[in-house]
Specification:
Distance between the termini: 46 Å
Structural class: alpha+beta
Strand order of the largest sheet: 1-2-6-3-5-4
Number of helices: 15
Order of helices and strands: EEEHHEEHHHHHEHEEHHEEHHHHHE
Shape: globular
Oligomer: single chain
Number of strands: 11
CATH topology of the largest domain: Cytochrome Bc1 Complex, Chain A, domain 1
Largest sheet: 6 strands, mixed
CATH superfamily of the largest domain: Metalloenzyme, LuxS/M16 peptidase-like
Number of domains: 2
Length: 414
Amino acid sequence: MIIPLEPNPFTFTLSNGIRVIHKQCQGAVSCCGFVVRTGTRNELDNEQGIAHFTEHLLFKGTTNRRAHHILNRMESVGGELNAYTTKEETFVYSIFLQEDYERAVDLLSDLFFHSTFPAEEIEKEREVILDEINSYEDSPSDLIFDDYEDFLFLGHPLGKRILGNPDCLKKFRNESFTDFYLRNYTTDRIVFFSQSSLDFKKIKHLAEKIFGGVPTRLFEGKTLFEKPVEQRGVTKILSKDTHQAHVVYGNKSFSLFEDKRVGMYLLNNILGGPGMNSRLNVALRERSGLVYSIESNVTSYTDTGLFTIYFGTDQKQTDQCMKLVEKEPKRLRENRLTILQLQAAKKQLYGQMLISSENKENQTLNLGKSMLHFNQYDSMKEVIRKVESFTPQSLLEIANEVFDPQTMTLLIYK
């Protein structure tokens, strides 16, 4: 396998605490943005949905620009402006031609540090998000994952929906967003990430010029809320007006800082990853024709993790599907992979990673997240070294820890 040579990313920290990571690359397209270690998890009980709402409002007016100026600033030169909120992060970024790099950084800095949350825009965007929630409610294959996390992390902030609670959303005013922003968007929790053909000296100069003068603000609350205690070994059935039954079957997995999470990604890829040759896809779709799609996923948070298997099927076939689903994790618990099976699984994962790394947007966002949580970025060579360290025996042990039928939790929409 040929691993492409990667230039090492450059990193430095501004005097106000904002960290910068830049990877030089070839090509006419650049990508950069900001990420802050703030998401749904940072919301108070009366703030459900405010992290995502705040992300929307960053685009609706600053001390220097109105909403239509923001909308046109990158689009008018063929660029794209985007953002998203997770349980633990908020990203705002742009993809554009290299010649427009300074334009992009200036705009992103304005959004991130000078937003004003204008009242008239709050009212308009509130309706947009309420419509987004209604649309989400009409998609059981998406909604069930939110309900599953709420079920697994019962009563914990990690169980909150990113889109929020409509009753809370209706109460937010300008001061609600200002308070949330000032409490959480602190310079010691922000990373600027970049990938461009520009050299590091140019990036450093622009960072110091455009947002190096942002006043230092330090986070004064807990770095994270208390670690969740997951509900395990429990089944819940919700009555839904759906043609199909929708099922999520899963368990606690590993956090971002546990080495076992890398082995878990490898096991997940074998079991129900994106490949059509995954064991679950072969068993339930190719051989049995019981489902249109079935998948498994791994999510890692800063202090816990989540493994899930999802499928939708005819109501009458739910039990039959579950029997087949339970067989595949059992095989991984009871039978060590052969050397040939493990080599094939690793090769498939490497291929997927290398192909994904060709996507500049994905790679640049990964730069930001890695710097945010680990203060460094692992090269593809280092990632592959970590995957190579797992043996049939170590994967068997991980499978027995995560796929234990006594602790697996099941949620069914019927």
